[in-house]
Specification:
The complex is a heterodimer of chains A (404) and B (133). In chain A, a hairpin with a 6-residue loop joins strand 8 and strand 9. Chain A folds into two domains: 143 residues, P-loop containing nucleotide triphosphate hydrolases (Rossmann fold, 3-Layer(aba) Sandwich); 147 residues, no CATH class. With 404 residues, chain A is of the alpha+beta class. In chain A, strands 6-7-10-5-11-12-13-17-16-15 form a ten-stranded mixed sheet. Chain B is an all-alpha fold and 133 residues long. Chain B has a domain of 60 residues. Classes of the chains: A alpha+beta (404), B mainly alpha (133). At the A-B interface, helix 2, helix 5 and helix 6 of A face helix 3 and helix 4 of B. Chain A: Keywords: ATP-binding, Calvin cycle, Chloroplast, Disulfide bond, Kinase, Nucleotide-binding, Photosynthesis, Plastid, Transferase, Transit peptide. Chain A: This is Phosphoribulokinase.
Chain lengths: 404, 133
Amino acid sequence: MAVSTVCTTQSLNSTCSISTPEKTHLGFHQNQVVFYRRTSKRGGGSCVITCSVGDSQTVVIGLAADSGCGKSTFMRRLTSVFGGAAEPPKGGNPDSNTLISDMTTVICLDDYHSLDRTGRKEKGVTALDPRANDFDLMYEQVKALKSGIAVDKPIYNHVTGLLDPPELIKPPKILVIEGLHPMFDERVRDLLDFSIYLDISNEVKFAWKIQRDMAERGHSLESIKASIESRKPDFDAYIDPQKQYADAVIEVLPTELIPDDNEGKVLRVRLIMKEGVRHFSPVYLFDEGSTISWIPCGRKLTCSYPGIKFHYGPDTYFGKEVSILEMDGQFDRLDELIYVESHLSKLSTKFYGEVTQQMLKHADFPGSNNGTGLFQTIVGLKIRDLYEQITSSKTAAPLEATKA
Amino acid sequence: MTMATLSSLNLATPRMTANLPDSNKVNTVKAPYLNQNRPWKMVTHLGSRRMRAMVPVKAAPDSLSEKVEQSIKEAQEACSNDPASGECVAAWDEVEELSAAASHARDRMKDNDPLENYCKDNPETDECKTYDN
């Protein structure tokens, strides 16, 4: 959405008027300001009308992960980096999946299910199957929001399993689409400015789901296992392939520090960052592009069992150049966290200790003492950096146009 | 809990309204014949003058837990015939979806302590100071 300058030849009788139309249903962009300037010359004075479309171009982030894999935790960390807490829209459907804060709006892609729960049962398809999702509608609405047009988005009610009446979504500064298929459809993929995939290994997924579901009546180890196993074919066929398109992949694996560990408390987390992505500079340890193995515990820092181990290096991932930063172990104390942060580079923090501060702010979130929380926070800061770069490059362009 | 009769008496003295219990957090008039399956469909008494804002009620977590239990049973039945069939897979997917919804509901319930919410933002106030020896 570029700046347009229009010159008219007729002078206007009226004095200057500034109008800010917000008639989104007509397709006008929000924050559109039209200036009318009256010239003092008589007869045939030219009047310049400039339409500057402020921040109507929304930055779109895609986040993909299987159900129960930490998307909500990631969302909360991300919105906290921008400031403010994201909440469901006030006064609307209480079972809405949307979260809104000052800067961000998070849309759950389950809202684009074309089949509700009974429909899927009849056809014998899972929610993972692309046949259960309306990708055309998803593409149209994300495209509209990206260009600054509000949309009526359907609501998928997870409690009843039905499709509820739509809710109005106004274009935010940052739009996050999270769900099972943000990168599945090629058109939607092209709209994303940045995409993240949470890749949880089977053992860890099993451990997390046990933690989540054992409190529920009716669930047992067998039922949880059966649920994961039976969804696996669809997951491998439709969801897993999306990781090759992601700009950043957070891979969660069982730890290598404790032999035969099956509790899943200590985790090995790898942040796989694609090289050459616009506005995104990967984090590195000590020396960019080299391979480093680092154990911070020693004379300056004492850690408790099992300690912390870092690894950084370049690699290839599905044929693309990537940099991988890996952390195995957990943080027990604040000074371990700040020590690690002070040795990482290109974190996109605004001040020293910002990562630590963000982690402490949400110390009750799952993963706050290991690599999942750390890397989610870092990715959040990277997204903030990306947003600022995109918006500053956009404001630079209109200035040049008006000079001409 | 049922203050339905109140609506027909709302032309009565204001003293009646003062007795409204605080437990009536939801500002709607509930009829005794409320449809238990669709708690958001509030039925107001005809002629009720007290038009408060209708706030739809969130689904109660108990019904969610029951749904989870029910869906697990159904999935086990569906899979006893043919573990690879579409019905079996779809049934377990439903179990997964309901378990996720139940877990989110549980998290939301946890966040509803007013003191905790206040102290999160104001830890230095007298009510919220903690002393660790």
